[in-house]
Amino acid sequence: MSYFSIRAVSKSYDSEKALYPFSLELGKGELLSIVGESGSGKSTLLRIMAGLEVQDEGGVWLKENEILNPKQKLVSGYDEIKLIHQDFHLYPNSTVRENITRPLLKFDAAYRENRVTELMSLLGLEKFADRFPRELSGGQQQKVAIAKAFSVEPDVLLLDEPFSSLDSIQTSRLIAELKELFTQLGTTVVLVTHELDDALKLTDNLLIL
Ligand code: ADP
Ligand code: MG
Description:
The chain is α/β, with parallel strands linked by helices. The chain is 32% helix and 25% strand. It has helices at residues 42-49, 96-101, 109-122, 138-150, 168-185, 196-202; strands spanning 4-13, 16-26, 31-35, 57-62, 65-66, 81-84, 156-160, 188-193, 206-208. It has a 5-stranded parallel beta sheet, with helices on both faces. Strand 4 and strand 5 (65-66) form a beta hairpin. The longest helix is centred in the last third of the chain and has 18 residues, at 168-185. The radius of gyration is 17 Å and the shape is globular. It binds adenosine-5'-diphosphate and magnesium ion.
C-alpha cells in the first residue's frame, strides 16, 4: 500500500455530481499538481483528502490508517494532513510569531519556541516576527499561513489555489522557495490550481482533472 492513497472517492451535492470517482497513490515526499478548470471538483477533492468533507463513496488512507470524514470523527480534520487556501486564514490581531505559535499551544513552551524559530528561519520570516498580517505583502502572508500549517509537522500538505491572490512575480518567487522547502522537509504535497504554469513550476508530476 502507498503512503497516501485515495481510492475511488466521489461526491455529489444534491443531484449534481461534483467529483467523479477519483483515485491516486502518492509516496512520501512526492509533489503532485492537479489542474482543472473552476467547478471541476478540485476543492471538493482536497477537502475529502483532508477529512473535512463527507464523500459518497471510496476512502482515503495515510500510512495505512483510514482518514475519517466529519460524519465518522467528532473533531474534523487531522494534524497529519493540512489544507491551505488562497485566503490565508491568519489571525488579524496576532503577530506573525503568534500566528505560527497558535497551533502549538498544546506543546511545552521550549519546544514551541524552537519550532517557531526554526519555521520562521526556514521561510525567511524572522524580520517580520512582530508584524501583523496587514503589514505584510500577499506572498509574505501566504508564507506565514504555510509556516502555521507546518508547525504541527504534517505528513501531507494540500494547497488549494494558494497563489490566486498573489501577483505573478510574487508567485514565481514563492513557488521557487516552496519547492526547495518541500523537498528539504520530505513533505508530500498536492497542489490544485487552474493555472497550468504554476503547476508546472512547482512539480514535474501533473494530473488534469
Ligand atoms: P473547484 O474547486 O474545482 O472550483 P469545487 O470542488 O469547489 O470545484 O466544486 C465542484 C462542484 O460542486 C461545483 O459545481 C460546485 O458548484 C459544487 N459545490 C461545491 N461545494 C458545494 C456545496 N457545499 N454545496 C453545493 N454544491 C457545491
Ligand atoms: Mg476550488
